[in-house]
Amino acid sequence: xxxxxxxxxxxxxxxxxxxxxxxxxxxxxxxxxxxxxxxxxxxxxxxxxxxxxxxxxxxxxxxxxxxxxxxxxxxxxxxxxxxxxxxxxxxxxxxxxxxxxxxxxxxxxxxxxxxxxxxxxxxxxxxxxxxxxxxxxxxxxxxxxxxxxxxxxxxxxxxxxxxxxxxxxxxxxxxxxxxxxxxxxxxxxxxxxxxxxxxxxxxxxx
Length: 206
Fold this sequence. Notes:
Blueprint: E1 10-12, H1 16-24, E2 29-32, E3 37-40, H2 46-56, E4 65-68, H3 83-94, E5 103-108, H4 117-120, E6 125-130, H5 134-143, E7 153-154, E8 156-157, H6 169-176, E9 181-184, E10 195-198
Parallel strand pairs: 1-9, 2-9, 4-6, 5-10
Antiparallel strand pairs: 2-3, 3-8, 4-7, 5-6
């Protein structure tokens, strides 16, 4: 990261390789999600995740949602569970379909998965969403590497704490100006924030 120089701040969908370089260099990104705009970073770049928290004025104890592109990316998080339990939980995630509301799962994480505390807030679960947004799904694919084998992209609402989430590029830029990069794309038009479900118990948290 020390050899990186982040200069570009606005990316379109045809510039994903440059956008990925931005994320690999520790850049923060604001982007449209399934509903409102989100703000995030490469989930395994500690400096960038800390910057997300600082910009939002969000306490680290809350943890963060991460996006990934495929349910099988979740399997290593469950490695300490019996195989039949792993299969059951992965099947549960796979059979849910979005109906104008995305689903974020609280996934039990094995200690051997080495998920940073900044992401979990110190809890024994990680909030994960398999994104159906085509551009974000592709970003997660491109983020996948030895350092980030899950393809995790941090995804928290694009706002300062206690302010309404941005729903447009202009609102996002009004919050964060030149401090972050921006993906020029459209949301999926969902009118509700993601539903949060505990994967193990099935309990709806939100």
